[in-house]
């Protein structure tokens, strides 16, 4: 698993206009850890985006990774909704669409409830750009590879999003 303050990277494989390597941060002290590598798995935007209750597209979340927006309910509630729909993990994008530099720091809320799936946090700008690309292409999901090991890739070859500075 990952230690606190480490990053986890994933690459969008499709659609091609957002074929970049994105940086996410894992939830602290709760949820599962990424101990499986997925070479091709769907990143499914939750409908509704905040994933605070029943999903309209829950069938697509089954055995995939859900992309949800921050807000509306606790992170743990979002994780439980995605877990109940059979999701393998959840990536939570900040709801501030212009946020291109600050990761949301979330800790366990002190509740006795738990979730077993991993939760990652994504910059608001990155989440917005992924959702916008899917809407423009009329696609229900992106295909991603997660996690991606970037330690052996020179920075100039990492294909990071042009709107994000590493």
Automatic annotation (TrEMBL):
Name this protein carries in UniProt: Protease-associated domain-containing protein 1
InterPro entries: PA_dom_sf, PA_domain, PRADC1-like_PA
Database matches in Gene3D superfamilies: 3.50.30.30
Any Gene Ontology CC annotation: extracellular region
SUPFAM superfamilies on file: PA domain (SSF52025)
Domain PA: 43-127
Record key words, sorted: Glycoprotein, Secreted, Signal
Location in the cell: Secreted
Role: Plays a role in the modulation of physical activity and adiposity.
CDD domains cross-referenced by the UniProt entry: PA_hPAP21_like
Cross-referenced Pfam families: PA
